[in-house]
């Protein structure tokens, strides 16, 4: 049993620690806890056996071991906080002199989640590169067998190999682009760019692709060319991605409408800006997919998108670029009837 003065000192001391901390005496009673621990465990449990505060066997073992040795040990404690399961790394530390053990909780949920995301990312990239590569390797093997006997077949194999190589190369370009955009996301663009010029350039590049599919693009621009503070090549990427998607998923023989609006107030921005919309009359997207479209590698229909050479990175790149421009990407869709992808750029700040 410890002197009351000591406990007072300990009470005051633990309150200076911002992470949750419990102090347990050699009878296994909680003698002190800070506010962070009360918030985490729901009560201060002062004067009560620590089993009452923590029922997880691993942590109970940890405390018991701590009383038997000097070494600090760690273990995980799990707790659902506002609907989210959180993981805390618990460290025990023994003071032989004071005959106490301290238990501190360090929230590692975000670190674990970030690691998981990195692993998923690497797995996705590897998978995306692996399948075209496997196909190329297979064709090379077959090719060497038929190159003399069947030159026509050989030519066909070469075409497949070219297509698969291009897919890998475009995936790598997208990945590099994404990491460049992410790295620069905190820096506002400093050049003045003309959205009309950019749109005309993108339309010129993609009109032949659309024509091959019998798709007509109708471009409507309200008022004069908008000037914004932007990054020219990034805005080109945004328009290209959205128009390419409208072509790829809008359906052959259908119509695409591109509208560049004049400046108006946008609630999504809380200020005035220019909205550019890409409307297609294609398959559309069901509501439950909408929120996930900007996730890396997310595709509604993997098979269809892959056939189009897509990797599911386009919209995540668009989202990052719009964030850098202090703008927004809005997606609306009516399944079966088409989709509207809009980007809003804030007006140039003078
Ligand atoms: N206009 C659209 N209509 C219907 N579905 C769309 C449209 N635009 C995008 N999608 C869906 O959203 C998914 C993600 O689009 P995103 O542009 O990120 O990737 P992608 O086009 O598959 O590949 P990438 O752009 O990297 O070549 C697509 O796979 C497709 O399923
Ligand atoms: Mg795309």
Q: What characteristics describe this protein?
A:
single chain; 350 residues; alpha+beta; Beta-Lactamase; Helix Hairpins; Heat Shock Protein 90; six-stranded mixed β-sheet; 47% helix; 25% strand; binds magnesium ion
Describe it for me?
The strands form three sheets. Strands 7, 9, 10, 11, 12 and 13 form a six-stranded mixed sheet that branches. The longest helix is centred in the middle third of the chain and has 38 residues, at 109-146. The mean pLDDT is 91. This protein is α+β, with helices and mostly antiparallel strands and 350 residues long. The chain has helices spanning 4-14, 35-41, 50-53, 57-68, 109-146, 151-184, 195-212, 232-249, 287-290, 302-307, 314-324, and strands at residues 21-25, 30-33, 73-81, 84-95, 100-107, 191-194, 216-221, 227-230, 255-260, 264-266, 271-280, 328-334, 338-346. The chain has three domains: 4-107, PAS domain (Beta-Lactamase); 110-184, Helix Hairpins, CATH 1.10.287.130; 187-350, Histidine kinase-like ATPase, C-terminal domain (Heat Shock Protein 90). Helix 8 runs antiparallel to helix 11. The termini are far apart. The chain has eleven helices and 13 strands. Bound molecules: adenosine-5'-triphosphate and magnesium ion. Adenosine-5'-triphosphate binds next to helix 8 and helix 11. The site of magnesium ion (MG) has 5 residues, from helix 8.
| Total helical elements | 11
Q: Tell me the name of the CATH class of the largest domain.
A: Alpha Beta
How far apart the termini lie comes to 70 Å
Strand content: 15-25%
Which word captures the global form? elongated
Query: How can the largest sheet be summarized?
Result: 6 strands, mixed
Strands, total number: 13
Return the CATH topology of the largest domain: Heat Shock Protein 90
The low-confidence parts are: none
**What's the pLDDT, averaged over the residues?**
91
Instruction: Output the structural class.
Output: alpha+beta
Q: Spell out the helices and strands N to C.
A: HEEHHHEEEHHEHEEHEEEHHHEE
| Name of the CATH superfamily of the largest domain | Histidine kinase-like ATPase, C-terminal domain
Helix content: 40-55%
The tally of domains stands at 3
Which small compounds were modeled alongside the protein? Answer: adenosine-5'-triphosphate, magnesium ion
CATH architecture of the largest domain: 2-Layer Sandwich
**Rg result:** 30 Å
């Amino acid at each position: 049993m410890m002197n009351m003065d000591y406990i007072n000192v300990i009470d005051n001391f633990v309150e200076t620690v911002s992470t949750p901390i419990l102090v347990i005496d050699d009878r296994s009673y909680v003698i002190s806890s800070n506010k962070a621990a009360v918030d985490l465990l729901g009560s201060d449990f002062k004067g009560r056996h620590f089993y009452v505060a923590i029922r997880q066997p691993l942590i109970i073992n940890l405390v018991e071991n701590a009383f038997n040795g000097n070494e600090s040990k760690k273990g995980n404690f799990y707790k659902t906080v506002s609907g989210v399961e959180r993981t805390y790394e618990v460290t025990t530390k023994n003071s032989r002199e004071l005959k106490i053990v301290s238990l501190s909780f360090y929230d590692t949920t975000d670190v674990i989640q970030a690691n998981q995301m990195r692993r998923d990312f690497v797995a996705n990239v590897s998978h995306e590169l692996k399948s075209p590569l496997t196909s190329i390797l297979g064709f090379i093997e077959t090719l060497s067998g038929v190159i003399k006997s069947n030159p026509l077949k050989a030519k066909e194999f070469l075409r497949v190999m070219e297509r698969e190589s291009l897919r890998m190369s475009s995936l790598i370009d997208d990945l590099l682009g994404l990491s460049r955009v992410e790295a620069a996301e905190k820096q506002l663009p400093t050049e003045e760019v003309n959205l009309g010029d950019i749109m005309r350039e993108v339309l010129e590049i993609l009109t032949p692709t659309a024509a091959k599919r019998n798709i007509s693009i109708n471009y409507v621009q309200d008022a004069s060319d908008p000037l914004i503070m932007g990054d020219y090549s990034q805005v080109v990427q945004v328009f290209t991605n959205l128009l390419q998607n409208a072509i790829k998923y809008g359906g052959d023989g259908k119509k695409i409408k591109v509208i560049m609006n004049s400046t108006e107030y946008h609630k999504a921005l809380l200020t005035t800006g220019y909205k550019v919309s890409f409307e297609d009359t294609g398959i559309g997207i069901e509501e439950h997919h909408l929120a996930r479209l900007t996730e890396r590698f997310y595709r509604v229909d993997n098979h269809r998108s892959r056939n189009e050479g897509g990797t599911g990175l386009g919209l995540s790149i668009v989202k990052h670029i719009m964030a850098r421009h202090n703008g927004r990407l809005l997606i609306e869709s009516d399944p079966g009837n088409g989709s509207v992808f809009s980007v809003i750029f804030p007006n140039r700040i003078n």
